[in-house]
Sequence to fold (636 residues):
Amino acid sequence: MKRNKPFRSWSETFRLNHRALKLFYKRCPQLVLSRIIYAVWTALTPYIGICLSALLVEELASGQHTDRLYFLALLSLISAAGVSLITALIKRWRDSQNMGIGRGLRLETEHILSDKLLEMDYVNLVQSGTLKEHSTILQNMGNSGWGLHRVLRNYVALCSALFTLFGGVSLTVSLFLLPVPQSAGAYALLNSPVFVFLIIAVMLAITYLAPMLANRAGKYWVLSIGALNLDNRIYSFLSHLKSRREIAADVRIYRQDKMGGRFLLEKEGTFGSSGPIAKCARGPMGLYRAASGAVSVIFTGIVYTYVCLKAWAGAFGPGAVTRYVASVTKVSDSVSRLIAELGDMRNNAPFLEQTFSFLDLPDRMYQGSLTVEKRRDRQYDIEFRDVSFRYPGSGQYALRHVSMKFEIGRRLAVVGMNGSGKTTFIKLLCRLYDPTEGEILLNGIDIRKYNYREYMALFSVVFQDFQLFALKLGENVASKTGYDNALAADSLRKAGFSKRLSEFPNGLETYLYQNYDKNGVNISGGEAQKIAIARALCKDAPFIILDEPTAALDPVAEAEIYSNLNEIVGDKTAVYISHRLSSCKFCDEIIVFHEGTIIQRGAHADLLAEKDGRYYELWHAQAQYYTETDPASAAL
Fold:
């Protein structure tokens, strides 16, 4: 088995676990408190029953005080009822808190991780290493149970073990202090301090040995987890391959399900019956588990023997036997659990370190503090001033010395070959990235000085890889649950979706797709694009940016969109990125990018007049397919 990183020191282990507990407490304090209090209560209350049971047995054995026997029986019933009532109340509090966050610990952990993805700099998000690290954390959590969500379970178990130990020790001390009568003959040896010390030492050694062996077995998972991550990721992908609707056609046509044979069917695979994990389970891992169980049984035998010998010799009565056996067993169990949980916390430390490495990814993009002026006239002046940009880790500039101003309320088309810098230009405009050189100004002020979220609120964007959700149509358009029906419907109308909307059984309340509602409506790619355009309109931002807005539309729908362009955009400043140059005729101005720089700028007619220009070349490269006569048609 391939070894992972070395195990962390105890100080590092406690630091990581304590930080994780504080993180959970900050997000859901009552969930943490309710679980810990419930664990402490359930750890201590069994001793009430143990003590009362011992007194009852003692009284029954003596048979001298009937009134005391009735009193003890009544007290046992009342205490059992009281304990059950309080236990039920605390459990209800604990369960209600778990229901209140609506997720549970594992899903709460996923929420913590997803919050980080949402809040981190976009430049960090799109780096492959970030998403790989996030994926690895989820795999370790889902496949092996390691990670952040394990911490609270460890702490709850630790509290339970500590208080169980405290209660057990308080009832067990007298077992070793009560002397055997000297008249007991050879049994008087049980009074010897040396013998008592040896018995306690043996009990503690066995108590320590059982969880230590179990932890040794658990370490094999930790040591091998690094080698299993890749196979885990591939296994997870292939196991869901057949159920993914968006690729179902490809899977069936090319029988791509067969690609998973090596991972899903072969016995020698990572998770197969003859694979490395199975061999380890049949070898040292299994031996350690078996040895741990055997040692626990030996301890039980020693406890019963010692307690019964002292009772037989006359050190205490039969009632005390019940109490001592139960309490010593609980002491042993609590010490074993204590050691096991501490070992588990140490085993989990490398995974916590990996999680915090992800959560601690620095955000270097300045968030700004200036408030963006909210203007009803939408008079926002944007200027690119000698802007150059290079993607992180790249030695080549994606944009070079770009300078331009936006004319408010105008329609701007951005065209160029693939890789010419169009999308980079838009991402800089929306401040998903900051320029490597130069600056972008909003009303004469560097956009980096504005509050980041307020600045981004100025833009509505339809990206090429937009995403709709299997939720209600209105929620998709408004991007929230409580939405303005009239605004959502009007946005859909402007985007050319009115006719299709009238066919939906529940109007805006109709679910898209059938993931969550069997009556959901499946939509085509063109219809999805119209809904995405409607979502951009519904946000009602001063700038609307459409990246290939009609790529999935048929020619009729495309013509409808552009013929209604003025109504769709209104008084907004619109930016279009398109490979279909026919759309440029509807725009006030066209910018032509080539190899990261602006090489032409002007109206459609003016740029066509420049016969040696790039725009003329691109236009006629597309126009030839519509103007040239088909030889086959000519022959007819």
